[in-house]
Design a protein that fits this description.
By secondary structure, the chain is mainly alpha-helical. The protein has a two-stranded parallel sheet. Helix 1 packs antiparallel against helix 2. The radius of gyration is 15 Å and the shape is globular. The two termini are 26 Å apart.
Length: 143
């Protein structure tokens, strides 16, 4: 089963699930949520910290990004906590691939610095313009 909440996705990763697959599965479930409130509930609970500064900051960025992209009307307060930000810049061209190495050129770092959404850049994470881009667009909401 796919994780219904961001907290559940992080817990699965803490227990050994794939960092490359599990976040994507969560985003799929988030996209399929039938209402704005259901989407907010999916990010409302604070995920446990993983002791991986990059991943913990990334989780905060994901929550804020989803809240703003889907116009949920609020961002969970936990997403702006100090553990959800990096002290040093992290430039990554693919959000969930290769956590330990960076193979980016100076030109690519410059592009990512300017293209990165504010929800990521404010945490010192510099990534592609649409970091959670999915093959299909968001599903219409029931009001």
């Amino acid at each position: 089963m796919r994780p219904d909440t961001l907290a559940e996705a992080v817990e699965r990763i803490r227990l050994g699930a794939s960092r490359e697959v599990t976040p994507d599965e969560f985003v799929d479930m988030f996209d399929l949520a039938p209402t704005i409130e259901a989407r907010y509930i999916a990010i409302a609970e604070e995920p446990a910290l993983t002791n991986d500064r990059r991943f913990d900051a990334l989780v905060g960025a994901i929550a804020e990004y989803l809240a703003k992209q889907y116009r949920l009307g609020r961002v969970p307060t936990w997403a702006s906590g100090p553990a959800r930000s990096l002290d040093r810049p992290w430039h990554t061209s693919s959000m969930f691939i290769d956590w330990t190495r960076e193979f980016l050129t100076d030109a690519m770092r410059e592009y990512l610095t300017f293209a990165s959404p504010a929800e990521f850049a404010s945490r010192n994470i510099f990534t592609e313009e649409r970091p959670l881009r999915r093959a299909r667009g968001p599903q219409p909401l029931k009001t």
